[in-house]
Structures are given as C-alpha cells and as structure tokens.
Amino acid sequence: MEVKRTKGVLKRIAGPVVTAVNLDAHMYDVVKVGDEQLMGEVIKIKGEDIIIQVYEDTSGIKPGEPVENTGLSLSVELGPGLLTSIYDGIQRPLEVLVEKMGDFIERGVTAPGLSHDKKWDFKPVVKTGDMVSPGTIIGEVQETNILHKVMVPPNVEAGKIKEIKSGSFTIDDIICTLDNGAEIAMMHKWPVRIPRPFTEKLNPDIPLITGQRILDGLFPIAKGGTAAIPGPFGSGKTVTQQALAKWSDAEIVVYIGCGERGNEMTEVLTEFPELEDPKTGKPLMERTVLIANTSNMPVAAREASVYTGITIAEYFRDMGYDVSLMADSTSRWAEAMREISSRLEEMPGEEGYPAYLAARLSEFYERAGRVHTLNKDYGSVTVIGAVSPPGGDFSEPVTQNTLRIVKCFWALDAKLSQRRHFPAINWLNSYSLYLDTLSQYYDEKVSPEWNPLRTWAMEVLQKEAELQEIVQLVGSDALPDEEQITIEVARMLREIFLQQNAFDAVDTYCDMTKQFDILKAIKFYSDQAYAALKTGVMTAQITGLKAKNDLPQIKYVKEYKPEIEGIVKAMESEFTKLREAA
Amino acid sequence: MKEYRTISQVAGPLVFVEKTEPVGYQELVNLVLADGTEKRGQVLDTSDEIVVVQVFETTTGIGKDTGVRFTGETIKMPVGKDMLGRILSGAGKPKDGGPDIVPEKRLEITGAAINPWARGSPRQFIQTGISTIDLTNTLVRGQKLPIFSGSGLPHNEIALQIARQAKVPGSDEEFAVVFAAMGITKEEENQFMAEFERTGALEHAVVFLNLADDPAVERIITPRLALTTAEYLAFELGYHVLVILTDMTNYCEALRQIGAAREEVPGRRGYPGYMYTDLASLYERAGIIKGKKGSVTQLSILTMPGDDITHPIPDLSGYITEGQIVVNRDLHRKGIYPPINVLPSLSRLMNLGIGKGFTREDHKKVSDQLYAGYAEGVDLRGLVAIVGKDALSERDRGFLEFAEMFENRFVRQGKDEDRTIDESLDLGWDLLKDIPEEQLVRIDRELIQKYHPKYRKKAE
Ligand SMILES: Nc1ncnc2c1ncn2[C@@H]1O[C@H](COP(=O)(O)OP(=O)(O)O)[C@@H](O)[C@H]1O
Ligand SMILES: [Mg+2]
C-alpha cells in the first residue's frame, strides 16, 4: 500500500455489518464508523471493499458517512482496576456507561476499560540494575484483597532497570524505565485475539475443587482444564456455572455472560458482593471480573466478549494465579459468528454455521491450560463453557465440535431437571478425562480410600441403570433381594450424594471432607446391608432401616460431623439387632 | 421530502429502490400508491446502488408507479398518558374511533438494551391465585414468563385469569396492562375485549390489535410498539405494567416470511438464523431499573406447533425468557383446568421472590418436594401400564396415588378461584402428609416439624 488512506467512506449498511471503500486496512483493525464514530472491526477485505462488524447499533447510518481506521487491533486494557468490574463485550465498564448515558445502553459513547485517574499504591519488587524480561514481575499493587502483580509487558524487550519508582500512581504514569529506553506503566494493552505468551504448558494434575459433589466426586476437572456443560434451557447451565464461579478454589474468576439474560448478570452483581470465599473469607466479588454482553446487546460485541474475557484471564494467569473462566453460553457466541458470517454471504457450513466454527472453538479452548509463566511461576486458566443446543439435541454442530476439544463433559438432562434432581448432570453420559491424572492428588490429599470409593459409587449407579431396565418390564418387587438393595443404595447415592441444592445456604458448597464422609456413610450402609442379607435379614427390613432416614438431612447441616457419626452408629446398632433377630 | 419512482423489484414484503440519495439503515419509509393510498416500511439494507425496504403491509398495488419517500428518521412512536384506555391497531393507529394520541414524547420503537448495571433484581412476589404458578412456578415483578401452549388449549383463559387476579399482596401501587395481539382471530379478540370491559381493566390498559386478517408483516412492529409503550408507562410514569403478547408464534412466522423473501440462508426449520437475537430484543424488554418506581412484567403466549417444545419458536423463547408455564393437552383432556403441567414448567426468578420475608419459609422446599413426588408418580404410570398396579411396591403405589391427588386437588382449580399463597402452601402440605415422612427428603427436619399437618395438629 502506498499512501495510507486512513479515512474512507461507507458504501453499504446492512445490520451490524457495513462496507467501506477508499480505505486502507488490515484484518481486525479497529475503525470508527459514521458521523457518530461507532466502534467497529475489519473482518473481511474483498478488493476495494473493507467489510466491518460494528459493535453498536447501526440504525440511521447512511452510505457516504466517513470511516476512520485507527490502525490498532481490538485490545483490552490490563492493569489494576479490573477486579470487581463489569464490562460489555468490548471492555466498556457498564457502570461508567450508566453515568454517561443513563439506564439504557445508547451508542456512540466510549469508555476506557480502566480508570485513568485513580491512583494506586505501587510497591516495586525489583531494583535498579536488575535484569528484567517480558513477564517479569516488577512490583505489586494491593488491588482488592488480591495482590495485583505488575509485569513487564510481553512485547517489551528485556533490559536492565534504569529507574523504578515507589508510591502512588495512575495506571498511565511511568513507574519503571529500562536501559534500552523502554518505559513501563502499570497498564498495558493486549490484542484480544492473540493468546498471551508463556514458557510452557504443564500437565494438569491438580483438581479444581468446586464444592459440587457430582463434579468433585465423579467428574472432576483439573486446574487449567476444559469442560463443557451442554443442556436444554432450564436444565441448570447457568446455576452450575454460577456455583463454580462462587465456590471453586480458583484465585480469580472471569465470568462471561455471552448473549444471555440481563437479570442473570444483575443477580451475580447483587449476590457476589455478599458472599464469602469459603477459603479466604473475603467477598467473592473481589476476585471476580464480569463481562456482560446480554442477548439484546449488539451481536458483534457478543462475538468479541469471549476474547475479551479470556485475555483478562490469561493476564491474571501470567501473575501466577489460578484463574477460572466461565462462558455462558458459547452457543450464543457461535450464533454471533453465524449471524456475522451470513451477513458476509460466506458459504455456510453445517446448520448455517461458518466453516471455521470448529477452528474458532478449538483456538478458544486451547487458551486454557496450566502453565509455567514467563516469570517461571505456575498459573492456570480453567475454561468451562455452557453449550445451549437447539431443542436439547446434542448432535448439533456446536455441541459436537466442543466435545471433540474439551476434556470434561457434564451433560445436563431435562428429565432430571424436570423432577428437580439438581444439578441435573446425567451421571451415565458425563465423563472426565482427568480422572487418571488427578488420582494421585486424591490419594495424597483426600484419602487413599477416595479413589476406590468413587469407583464403587460409579459402579452402583451403572448397575442401577441396568436394573431399571428390568424394573421397567417386571416391576421392582420381582427383583432378587440383592438387587433390590443395589437399587436402594443407588437411590441413596442419587438423593444424598448427587443431588445438591444450590439455593440452600449450607448445601450449595460441600468440601472434600464432607463429600468423603457422606460417601463413606452410604458405603457403610451398603456393606452392612449385603452382610445382613447373608445372615437372613429380610430385604424390607434392610431397605426400611430407620437410622438411614436421617442421612439426607446431613446436607443441610454445617457442623455435620457429630451427627453423621451418630447416624453411622445408629445404623450399625440397628443392623446388629436385625442380624440377632434373624 | 424527495419522492422516488425508482422501484426496480418487488418480492414478497420487500421493495428494492434504486438511485436514491444516501438513505439511513432502518429509516422509516412512506410509499404512496398510484391511487393515493399510503403504506409504511423500513430500510433493511442500504447502499449507493440499492435500498431494500420491508413494507409493513401487503405489497398489493405497489409497482413502478409507486412513489417512495424516505423520512430521514427511524421509526418512532408517539406516547402519552392518555394512551391508557385506548385501542390501537397493530401499527399504532387509533382503532376505537377516538382521537390521535397526544404525544408527550416520541420514542424509538427498537428500544435500547437496559444496562445490566442499572437493573434492579426482580423479587417482588406476584400472587396470581393459581397454585401451579404461585407455589411451584412463582412469578415476580419484572419477570418475563411466557405461557407455552398448543392450539385449542385454554391459554387465553389462563392469561386472563392471571391478569384479573394478579396482585402484590399488601401493595396498592398503580398498575397498567399493555396488550398486544399478533395475528389472533376475531373470536379471540372478542374474548379478550369482553373480559377487559367486564372487569373494567380497559381503563388501565393500552390495546394493540393486529388480527389474523391484518398484514402479517405489521406483526414485526406490533410488539415493539407495545413494549415501547410499556417502558414509557413503567420507567417514566412509574406504573407496574403487565405486558401480554399473543401469539408469539405468529410473530415468528412473520419473521420467517421476511427472511425467505430476502433469500437468506435459513436456520433451523426454515426460521432465520438471527431469530434468537430478534426474540431477545423483545423478551429482554422487561425488568426493573434501580431507583425507578415502575416495572415491566411480560406474559407472552405462544402456541407450540405440534405441541413440540423443541420446535424453534418455544425453544429459542425458553432460552431467553425467565422460565415458562407449559399448558398440557393430556391434562386438558382429563378435564383439568388450568391444565398446567408443572414438570416442564419453570420460573427462574422464583428463588428471589419466595421464602422467609417474601412468602413463607417452607415455600421452596415444599415446591421441590411436590415436584419430586409428582415426577415419580407420573413415571410410575408408564410402568403400571406395562406391569399392572400389583407389581408395584407399597412405596411406589403411594407416589402413584400422590400424582392423582396432585392433579385433582392442587392443579385443578376454578376459573375464578383465587387462592392465596398460604392456601396453596397448606394444600401442598395436605397432599404431602400422605407420603411417609422419611421419604420427604427434600425438606429439612425443622420445616417438617413446623408445617407438617401431623405436628401442626398436635401443636394446636
Ligand atoms: N443445583 C441446583 N440447585 C437447585 N436448583 C437448580 C440447580 N440448578 C438449576 N436449578 C434450577 O433450575 C433452574 C434453571 O437453571 P438454569 O441454570 O438457569 O438453566 P439453564 O441455564 O440451563 O437454562 C434454576 O432457575 C433453578 O430453579
Ligand atoms: Mg442459562
């Protein structure tokens, strides 16, 4: 390109996609569209035509209006001030937008992602003369209860520190200069579509403890792992994602509401500040960044929202934190791609999705992982994506393409949610490919009994499924005694262990010890039951054991230890009596 | 205003105009036919070469001799307090012989998205007097809760009963109803209008009517007019507004028709790929705003083609709305009114508006237990059909019986029967008392001790 034409004109407007001419541009350049300077991004170049997706409503824009190329890529601002924020898909703080334009989102208003006036207390951790390179942590800011680590940005060349300051600064103030002339501030920008660099990816062998029994117990996810939660509407995708955002033992949480409900984001905003992290006792909001591009906000910004989210997640990972990212819902993101693609009149692939759907999905999930950071710390990004298959049919392209990538599959089932079995995760279809890599952790950190217990529980549930098929034909009374007991034990596993009420103040979070104790108590009943049967006790007496009726109540009790011990003792003595009478 | 006579093509509801000066996207267009009739449309695609206009009425009579005027502004609607009590067409023109609306404001009908930061959380319990809603699928102010029904089922009766009985216990704030009909029959119209007049609701209502024989494409703007009105009444005048949109299925059909005329690549079952986003631009226009008095609560009705809840219209709706009330044909055949099947029904905002300080502390757990019991009973019906009742265990027979009782005593109620939430809860307990206590695993012990009829009797 010879003369750089940074100002062009609009030729065509059709919804969120517009065409400009007389403009020089590269893919993904950010442009200002029309008299109102709406923000857009170049997504296709076709001869003279520069095709742009616009992040704001394009009503009223006319051909002939100007278009200006900023020459920059779509980027996020990274620095102190991210935590507790709520952004739209292109990192405009929603709180600032309310101040600038009121309760409804009008267009044409820009707002930077971070406050450029606020001062933060910066404490250096390196000194003049130290050699630093990209990713080196040079100082710290107490952002919330989280320590924000200020790094040498990845695109700055290594060098020796010439000067480093200490004190109160804005994010734009230069706090450090290197001998190579580089000037470093607390904030830097990073293009959202480019993964941030790290030294190496590590094997994910530490579980992300979620406090959700069915997940930790049966289908665990590793820190730095990937999981998909597909399910029809109303089956529990959002509640599960929110439970993970609340209770999982990540240090930072990025929650993306991508093309979903406005009220759900409000709920997070009102609820999180009041909840405490069970580990640190600090308000959950202090470790959280929210991105809300709801279903009625512009689709192009919805497309961008997942990239904005994952870039922020990677940034905290680079500080050495364990980050978990929830995207609710990746299907709405895929649909945004489809909508834009069809406006581009691209060749549609399966069900109208663009042919690059699979590639985009895997590029996104590939940004998860446990890594050795550039600073040689350990950090991780765990990615958990909700999937909303049309009609609840898992054979559709987004679910299928996601399944090929992710390592945990938590399949939600409308049959279960309709009977209010929550979380409605189907224990027969779901899986985790992390079981093997995590087993050592459970052995060492929970109990050597944990892995066998898990296997046992899974076997009982599978056996029950087989038996249920027979019951459907002949009724449960026709089953042999032993199998009636299996059915009873499986019911206990389902009702006591698997079911977990996200809205009960106690049951919403269950630590590993309690999970272990509950499983052990059920296994105890099971062992005693089969033994009793052998000594001639009647099945009805075993399944009707009084003491076990108190077991479900354990879930709602915080200091449950004395109670569960009491129940186990009571079961034991009741069994002893039965055996003696037999 | 310049008038063009450069129409190059007419296809279905679309008109293609050439050689215009720059025209804005979504601009309102007036078309003047040779005989002087005027029609309205909106710009869907604009470029130097061609402008595509979607006409809101039939394109009958439109030809090369039709004059096209671009108004230079997007579609706006005059709103004012005197709209209450008025009946308007699906395009917003007076239909009751009254004067034009005196506009206090002219508002953009597309409506901007409420900033999630500005939203307040909807948690004020609305008592509809219907047990299957109040107890098991609670509606709260600012919620969007549609009725998923099928053709020939009494969804209109249910909607009317809700509109008639709905109240926030202990509150006497100003309320209004905005009713928008899209493609409903004359008979249905009469049913609604007669009821509004009988109960005096019309005084507090604004009615938009697009009937079955009105132009289908007009249906694209009818709900937008209604919601713009609702937002005005709620957020500028402080009313608590109940919006009834019926039938969303007709709206979606109109959307499909336009997509087909534009030769777009269709999505699932021929509906446009952007139908989710489009529906969201309607359904999301509900809620409450921090620091503002009013609220917009949406109760839309849609008929599921072939009673199929996985059909794109209910499916995409359910993905956006905050739950759904599902009307069921089998219950209707059994003569049960209201034939609401609670199992696939859901109110997502229920947890916010119930419990201690809102309704009653046992509300959630009683609801969960009723669901679990009914679901189990319904499952067993399938088994009984194969193996007979005798093959069931005693436990199973109990649940089978429970399901019957649930339908006949809890679901079934009169068209004018207005149950308080306490009555519904007590009724729930009365059914639960026949289940052995240790099987009530969804309810904690303290609540059982406090509310189970067995213990209550003793206490009394
Ligand atoms: N773990 C849970 N505990 C209790 N209720 C749940 C749980 N998960 C889901 N629910 C219920 O199911 C409803 C729908 O869940 P939600 O996560 O919003 O579904 P989805 O996002 O799949 O549409 C919630 O409003 C809630 O009533
Ligand atoms: Mg959801």
Note down, in words, how this protein is organized.
The complex is a heterodimer of chains A (582) and B (460). Chain A has 582 residues and is of the alpha+beta class. Chain A is 33% helix and 23% strand. Chain A has 4 domains: 7-73, Elongation Factor Tu (Ef-tu), domain 3, CATH 2.40.30; 118-189, RNA polymerase II/Efflux pump adaptor protein, barrel-sandwich hybrid domain (OB fold (Dihydrolipoamide Acetyltransferase, E2P)); 200-433, Rossmann fold; 447-581, Orthogonal Bundle (Bovine Mitochondrial F1-ATPase, ATP Synthase Beta Chain, Chain D, domain3). In chain A, the strands form 5 sheets. In chain A, strands 8, 18, 19, 20, 21, 22, 23, 24, 25 and 26 form a 10-stranded mixed beta sheet that branches. Chain A starts with 6 loop residues before the first strand and ends with a helix. Helix content of chain B is 33%, strand content 24%. Chain B is built from 14 helices and 21 strands. Chain B has helices at 131-134, 155-165, 186-199, 222-236, 248-261, 275-283, 312-320, 329-333, 350-353, 363-387, 394-411, 421-432, 445-451, 453-459; strands spanning 3-4, 7-11, 14-18, 27-32, 38-47, 50-55, 67-74, 76-79, 86-89, 105-108, 119-120, 125-126, 139-140, 147-149, 175-184, 205-211, 240-246, 288-289, 295-303, 323-327, 340-347. In chain B, the strands form 5 sheets. Chain B has an 8-stranded mixed beta sheet, sandwiched between helices. In chain B, strands 1-7-4-5-6-3-2 form a 7-stranded antiparallel beta sheet, with no helix packed on it. A two-stranded antiparallel ribbon of chain B has the order 8-10. The chains are: A alpha+beta (582), B alpha/beta (460). The interface between A and B is large, with 79 and 84 residues. The structure holds adenosine-5'-diphosphate and magnesium ion. Chain B: This is A-type ATP synthase subunit B. Chain B: Component of the A-type ATP synthase that produces ATP from ADP in the presence of a proton gradient across the membrane. The B chain is a regulatory subunit. Chain B: Residues 129-347 form the ATPase F1/V1/A1 complex alpha/beta subunit nucleotide-binding domain. Chain B: Residues 353-451 form the ATP synthase A/B type C-terminal domain.
